[in-house]
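ugh ok fine here u go
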Amino acid sequence: MTALLERPVTTPTTEPDELTPAQLIALRALTGWSQARFGEVVGYSQDLISLFELGRRPIPRDLVVNARARVEQRLRQEIAQRQAIIKALRSL
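structure:
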C-alpha cells in the first residue's frame, strides 16, 4: 500500500472533481478496502471499480465526490480511534 501512495501521479486532472485511475487506486488504498468494499461504499459494483481503475471507463463525477467524502470520513474515524488508544495508554 505504501508503494502505491509514494508513486507520483503523472496525469494531472483538469477539474477538482476528476480523478485519474491512479488517483482512484491511491484513494481506495488509503482505506485498505477491496474493490468490492469500496464499490459497495460508493455505490458501484466491483466490476465497474476495476474498469475505472484500469482506465477502461471514465470515472463518474458522483463517484469522485462520494469517494472523497467517504475516504475522509474513514480516515477521521481511524484518527479518532488512534487518539483514544493513545489517551488510554497514557493513563496506564
